Amino acid sequence: MKIRFNNPIVILLFSLIAISCSRTPNLNITSQPSDATILLDGKEIGKTPFKVKITKGEHKLSISKLGYMPVYKLISVKKSEDINIKLNKHTLEDMVKVPAGEFLMGSSDEEIKKVVRDLGGGELGPDVEWFSAERPQHKVYLDEFYIDKYEVTNEQYKQFIIATGRATPRHWEGGDYPKGMGNYPIVYVSWEDADAYAKWIGKRLPTEAEWEKAARGTDARIWPWGNDFDRAKCNVECWEGSGPKPVGSYPNGVSPYGAYDMAGNVWEWTDSFYDPYPGSKYVSPEFGKKLRVLRGGSWYHYDSLGPIGARCASRDRGTAQSVSYVAGFRCAIGAKEIATSQ
């Protein structure tokens, strides 16, 4: 049988096929539970359930939600289709629990005098600006929360980059971290980078109050292990040419709740703005909703400023876009946030 291509029916049939083939596919994305954030090719496009027109071809799809492990898929789109993602709850096995209750936040005059007396340091005195933002010491109540046992590592951050397409830190080469440093803390990340990672992994950045309580407990200790500095319990007082150590390298320096490297190694971003404490008389042009707080000190300090910066109450700050070779982060999540995310 001969097919006549000038036949109107044949022409209509081929036209319909051509239209169907050229039509932009729809992607209908759902998840259990719903209201999860969708990243498509590194761009946040909405929350589940969500329908979007998408070009044919390969695409990166990442789904995340507070309290759940993220899901990353490389999808090949040829036609309209439905994608349903089941998210699994965080097991919290890589975190430590900090019970609800009060703790003393900041530095007392007695603590500062002891630090100055024990560590000295040139012109260092109890009234220098370094200590001013830590006063007055005050009680803070916190609900129960969990905080990462270790600082976020290069290997963990690499998985985030793969899933979201976020730019690599400046010292990485060829899209990868330095060889053999997978278990070292990530550095050269801004507050914005840290915040994006925390949200993607289903957690958040700790507030500075959460960070301090996780580091010092409820007895107002100066360092995570006690009131006397011990360089054998932290990566502090090193010089240029040295660097951070693999996370968890100092088991004798853990905090009362079991968190590692809360003193030294790398400074850690928190979610809090750099503002004065309640009742503070200290005035600084840096206060206000413009700088974010970093905590914990780092491996690179000189003279007595290493131990001083590594105290539980010590505060530093930076813009949300700034990066440093001595700054990384860890994540947290509230017990109530876990309960409400179910």
Question: How would you briefly describe this protein structure?
Answer:
With 342 residues, the chain is of the alpha+beta class.
Q: What labels describe this entry?
A:
alpha+beta; Immunoglobulin-like; paralog of FGE (formylglycine-generating enzyme); 2 domains; 4-stranded antiparallel sheet; 4-stranded mixed sheet; 23% strand; elongated
Describe the protein in words.
- The longest helix is centred in the first third of the chain and has 15 residues.
- It is elongated and about 100 Å long.
- 21% of the residues lie in helices and 23% in strands.
- The strands form five sheets. Strands 3-2-5-6 form a four-stranded antiparallel β-sheet, with no helix packed on it.
- The chain has two domains: 79 residues, Sandwich (Immunoglobulin-like), CATH 2.60.40; 246 residues, paralog of FGE (formylglycine-generating enzyme).
- About 2% of the residues have low confidence.
- A hairpin with a 2-residue loop joins β2 and β3.
- The chain contains eight helices and 16 strands.
- With 342 residues, it is an alpha+beta fold.
Integer average pLDDT: 90
> Structural class of the secondary elements?
alpha+beta
Rg, alpha carbons: 25 Å
Cross-sheet strand order for the largest sheet: 3-2-5-6
How helix-rich are the residues, as a percent range?
10-25%
Q: What is the CATH topology assignment of the largest domain?
A: paralog of FGE (formylglycine-generating enzyme)
DSSP summary, beta strand count: 16
The CATH homologous superfamily of the largest domain is termed paralog of FGE (formylglycine-generating enzyme)
Show unreliable segments: 14-21
Tell me, briefly, the overall form: elongated
Reported CATH architecture of the largest domain: Alpha-Beta Complex
The total of helices stands at 8
